[in-house]
Amino acid sequence: MTASLERLSESLARIAPSRTTAMTDRAIALRAAGHDIISLSVGEPDFPTPDHVKAAAKAALDADDTRYTAVAGTEALRNAAALHFQRDLGLTVPPAQVIVSAGGKQAIFHALVATLDPGDEVLIPAPWWVSYPEIVRFAGGTVVPLATVAAGGYRIAPEQLAQAITPKTRWLLLNSPGNPTGAVYSADDLAALGAVLRCHPQVLVLSDDIYAPLRYVPGCHATLAVVCPDLGPRVLTISGVSKSHAMTGFRIGVAAGPAWLIAAMARLQSHSSGNACSISQAAAVAAFTGPQDFLTDWCQRFRVRRDRVVAGINTIPGLSTPVPDGAFYCMIDATPHIARFGDDEGLALHLLDHGVAVVAASAFGGRDGFRISFATDTDRMDRAISRIAKALS
Ligand code: GLU
Asked: Which residue from 92, 179, 273, 359 has the least number of CB within 10 angstroms?
């Protein structure tokens, strides 16, 4: 085959495969080949999808709900999502300003591809979720990292934001609770960032709130469009059912934002996937409108796991992790061990050889460490920590 036949587009050549999904695929393949691998690489709850949600999916299938839906989602799901935004985030939004996509990732992809041109800058607090910078680069934008540190709760400061904004800044990406650090922005933090943003009317804000129910700090979830309602017309808020309702495989994400942006995303989606899966949409209606009380129990169980994993990791010489305030990830510093393995990817591969799949910190714009997901049961988690300790001893 000739080289020109296999030539990739410039946009694709700018991006790398997702390192979270790559490591997870690798763990799955090793397991299928008979290896005993504990995967802490992907962020998905190990709890079963709630029964009432599964029943709604089965009922949709039995009712032959298997056709195209409106591109932006069924009326039922857009209504249910609007209810969710109001009840769980405090955000009032008409259903017409909600779009349903195949996962939050697709909504983010469409929003950025629909609005970025070469030269547009996108501010992303680092460490960041692996796909943010890749999507920005794919869309032709320029990634501007805003470094954060554990001592500052992995949150950006208003002065830092003010210094980073230029006339070319198009988006600020915020993720609270954050992946991979567990950073949580309070209403006061967001109000201070909002005061800076008010001076720069050209900046859009993507507020990725997919982990909103998973917080371990007192108080309500705070989100920018609610804390600073005057900024609402330029905020796109992302949510979904993947993390909250253990529905990662259903691939349903929802986004609420200004009408022009939702229309632009729908225009792009009409040529990419079209509507999200009709069965998954019916299941998501049940997730948003059905009982929510199990979430308190799940959150409590995640909290117990968090405390256990943080304590376990911090007893291993050369490893340290702060206590994450939300989501289900620990960003672990492993600086004293890195030289032995060349870099953090080498360390991650060494841990995989010892039966634990993790993701190197560099995948998230971090360094000298790795991320684990603690959305797994305590028995497996304990075994994983023992393996990590042994691998680094
Ligand atoms: N968001 C999850 C993670 O960070 C799922 C995998 C992905 O899409 O990156 O592990």
From this structure: 92
